[in-house]
Amino acid sequence: MAKKVALITGASSGIGKDTALVLKDMGYKVYGAARRMDKMKDIEQKGVSIMSLDVTDEESMIACVDSVVKKEGRIDVLVNNAGYGFYGAIEDVPMEEARKQLDVNLFGLARMTQLVLPTMRKQHAGKIINISSMAGRVCTPFGAWYHATKYAVEGFSDCLRMEVEPFGIDVVLIEPGAIKTDWGIIAANHLQEVSAKGAYKKQANRVANYFKKAYTSNSISKPELISNTIARAVRAKKPKTRYLVGYGAKLSVFSKHILSDRMYDKIIKKVMR
Fold it and tell me: DSSP of 103-172, one letter per residue?
């Protein structure tokens, strides 16, 4: 029997890279895809096939999926992991950057999904695993565009799930809390680049410092927690529609659910000082 095939975007670091190795160890033929091919040489040496992919480039996405289908004849799992966080006051973030974040975090995910669906429908089987975030269900100051992309991924995935269920395809949302990757430092740096000197500088610097402290601590969750959760969803005959995991995720979402908006705002601003 031919090996099942997994395609993972954003496989050059963090969750994507770790997931590629976990699925390979599960017996999958794994294709790790990202812009930075040099950052994937280590997983290539461990048996992962690496590919160049830019999820903001139509030709790149088509070539990636077509290549996998041509070589393997199937795609059983798509992990839409590529994404990033650009923080800054809404007033300060250039619209060009806002559009770029939507292109990567939402439209790239959506287009990769479109491209694998014909193959999965033909197989009458497949799993599409979208890496969202607790940020798709809660909010923080200066993260408007990032939160907007993740809220959109949540709604997109819910609609997709209902559409493809008759074809034997599962859609799963992974909603990580704070994970020890470069994400928080990058977000903090962006925040300071655009908002640390203007009208929002006092609060912006506080939030940036909070991120840097939090994401360099040992208290937040490691990427392996997320990759192992993805593996659990891949193994499951009937996976959950959502996996809310990682540092602060369940408490944050529960708090947002039970508190009034103003009370939630007050607590978040107090925590992120």
Answer: IIIIIHHHHHHHHHHHHHHHHT-EEEEEE--GGGTS--TT-HHHHHHHHHHHHHHHHHHHHHGGGTEEEE
Global pTM exceeds 0.85: yes
Task: Name residue 229's amino acid.
Answer: T
Catalytic, 146? Answer yes
Residue 159 has pLDDT above 90, yes or no: yes
- Reported as a single tens digit per residue, the pLDDT across 180-236 is 888 888 899 999 999 989 999 999 999 999 999 989 888 899 989 999 999 999 999
CATH of the domain at 224: 3.40.50.720
| Domain count for the chain | 1
Cα gap 186→87, rounded to integer Å: 9
Largest CA distance in the chain: 62
- Dihedral sign, CA of 143, 10, 35, 218? positive
Pairing relation of β-strands 126-131 and 169-176? parallel
Q: Is the dihedral of CA 101, 103, 104, 105 positive or negative?
A: positive
pLDDT of residue 1: 59
190 alpha carbon, distance to own chain's centre = 18
Is 200 strand, coil or helix? Answer: coil
Give the mean model confidence (pLDDT) for residues 32-52.
97
Dist CA 146 CA 63 (whole Å): 28
pLDDT of residue 65: 98
Token pair for 136:
């798709």
Residue from 88, 83, 98, 92 nearest 130 by CA: 83
Catalytic residue (choose from 28, 31, 87, 146): 146
Residue 75 lies in domain: 5-271
Pairwise CA distance, residues 45 & 26, whole Å:
17
